[in-house]
Task: structure prediction
Amino acid sequence: MSSTLLRWWRSLTAMRTALILLFLLAVAAIPGSLLPQRSLSQSRVTTYFADHPDLAPVLDKLFLFDVFSSPWFAAIYLLLFISLIGCVVPRALEHGRAVFAAPPPAPRHLHRLPDNGDVPTTLGPTTALDVVEEELRVRRFRVVRRDGAHGPELSAEKGFLKETGNVVFHLALLALLLGLAGGKLWGYEGSILVTEGDRFCNTFQQYDNSSKGAFVDPAGMSPLCVTLEDFKAEYEENLTAASFTADIAYGLAGSASRNTTIGVNSPLRFDGDRVYVTGHGFSPVFSVTFPNGDSFTDISAPFLPSDTATMSSQGALKLPDVPGSDEQLALEGFFAPTGSVQQGVLTSIDPRPLDPQVALFVYEGYLGLDSGLPQNVYTIDQTQIDRGTLDRVGQANLSLGESTTLEDGTVITFSGLKQFAAMQVSHDPGQVWVLVSAIAILVGLLGMLLLRRERVFARVAAGPDGAGTVLRMGALTRGSADTAPRFTALTDDVAAALARRARTEENPSS
Amino acid sequence: MINESLAATSDTLFSVAVGLYSLAVVAFCAELAFGRKVAPARELVAAGGGTAERAVPAQDDEPARARRWGLVAMGLTIVGALVHAGVLITRGSATGRLPWGNMYEFGTAVVLVAVVVYLVLALRTPSLRHIGIFVLAPVVLSMVGIGLFLYAQAGPLVAALRSAWLAIHVTTAILGFGIFFVSGIASVMYLVRSRYEAKVAAGEVPLSRIVHRLPSAAALDRTAHRTVVFGFPIWTFAVIAGAIWAESAWGRFWGWDPKETWAFIAWVVYAAYLHARTTAGWRGRPSAWVNVMGLGVMIFNLLYVNMVSTGLHSYGGVS
Ligand code: HEM
Result:
């Protein structure tokens, strides 16, 4: 039993397994990029369900629309994590010990090493090895001399940083996986549409859309509040979007607020949270005057852009409480910042608000807001129309300032225009950790790939005819292909140094 | 403000570069055609004996005519690369920004890097010159494809791309991609050549004039490996820089957007290649296949992900 477990542990923590798991993670990611994902676009998933009514539910059972949060993706991730721990930690410990250990003894048969050669000399064995040691120390090798079973020998080693790079790389990979997981568990994200002049605070109740990790405590969220004071979109001559900026006031609830400008590529980073502008659009402003003289002025709702090139947008404005009537009122329509009407159809020809126009349908009746079913705030509920509880009572194309009068005498005026920004607040406590790990991965990688680890061994033996000494050298290099030229250069230098030393020993005076 | 005449010059230079590269391909062909007919296999195998590499000696003693064509081909490639650089330089000055803001510009830059990598390799290791036609032919094909299907008029950058990270992230992505391009070709050549060497050594096929002139399988394998060793950290950096950029542009540093996903897949494939090459049983042909797969992933990421799937990296500008 325990031996089986041990065997499993061994194979799980083998380098090969870690690689296979990493590969598997990559393969597992493929469906996530080919099929629509809920995390990226809920609406494309809905479309896919409509297009493939038979296939989609099956795929959904396999979590193929939530690949990156699926149990099987998590399983691979977890196995990879464990495998890496088992593979890297022992290796790191061993490397730590090796850094302080002496280079290993010379192998018995030096001529079997990939690079090897003999250098004859007239010097004695000890002096010859002295010379070799000097040459190697100049090249920053660590050198050890031993009296081995096969004669005096020398071992030298350099390039520990290569293995250090390897250890750093793999440990950093572990750290990165940890950071990613931590960020997912303790991180959250919320998004909201904010019209100019409006304010929101960092709570899940206020967000239109939000997601949070398992360990997020809503009570512990930073009490950040943001007011959108002004939004600007700028365009090039050819109407390429040049910049989007939002002037905001922000601060923790209850304390003074500060002003700043955020925009594309420059979010606000504050107190561990980040605030982004992720989109923008227009909120047409209306006034409604009822036959009894009551009126609503300056009511507006964000209209969502359906085409960001022209900013033609669609939206709805619902008025559940009509004074002096049981009926409810709703405006639904199309907004064009620069309108052009062709054959009665309004289109937008420019994303800038040069000639704002709306094409409106007005409905009266029951909106179904209290039916208990969640409603899309940007459209009116089609089922109420189908059921006949909501009737179309008017339609009009209005330019800014124009009005239309319904049969019952209600006057609807397109009175103004505001802009809104789509804002997102993100919190990811793991991201600095991930960044540091990623940099460490890169540094480790560079060390691992670009450095060499070299071991050089030398041993001396008596010359073949008894005269002088033969110095036999061998080298083992990791991380380099063309080692022969470098080894030749080394032996040439050693031979030259030996010859020099031999000369000074012969006539020490000169 | 776009300088239209500079933009037009850039487009003209593009055609000139394609023309020069095509002529280089012709010259490389001529070099092959005038190369010495290789001696019958029998003799060589007998002379070399032993390993496959020795059975197919390098062809140093090429006839003067072939050599001259080889020089012409190299010269055309060099001039082509200069003109090719001119395409990007004029586009950059026409638009007043870095010339890699859409797929047309990105692809053009990647191919330029590939040509430069080839030239550096060929000038440093003369035997590698002989893979010239196998680099230049895909280069011409890619350029024609880029010109026909990815072309985008010179224009200003969209707001999202106005960031210093464009210079960092996209430049390194271009470098990495260009290096992997040449590496992938070296591996394909290795696959061809190593099979040929094995067959020649076994006496199964006669020497082939074209394959015979390729560098040895060992040299090709080494080239493929060295280029990946060089390109992999650059690619790693490009992905990290992309993540840093994404954190400020898209609200999160990693969100499994299709391009991110495939960048990760490519990273894993190249990591696997580097490991495979040092793993017994995977050296040689299997690892070369992994490298070829890596290039396949890179190309898929560029074409499929930009043009078919929808994601945040939709600055392709193909219309
Ligand atoms: C984690 C984040 C990111 C990753 C992994 C990533 C990955 C990549 C990859 C692999 C390429 C190479 C092109 C290819 O093969 O198709 C690329 C190119 C490019 N990236 Fe990113 N990227 C990231 C973030 C960003 C961000 C935030 C931006 C800009 C807002 C950006 C803009 C570009 C552009 C403009 C190109 C070149 C042209 C193109 O393909 O259209 N990237 N990126």
About this structure: The radius of gyration of chain A is 38 Å. Residues 81 and 174 of chain A are 7 Å apart (CA to CA). The longest strand of chain A covers residues 273-289. Chain A touches chain B through 52 residues (CB under 8 Å).
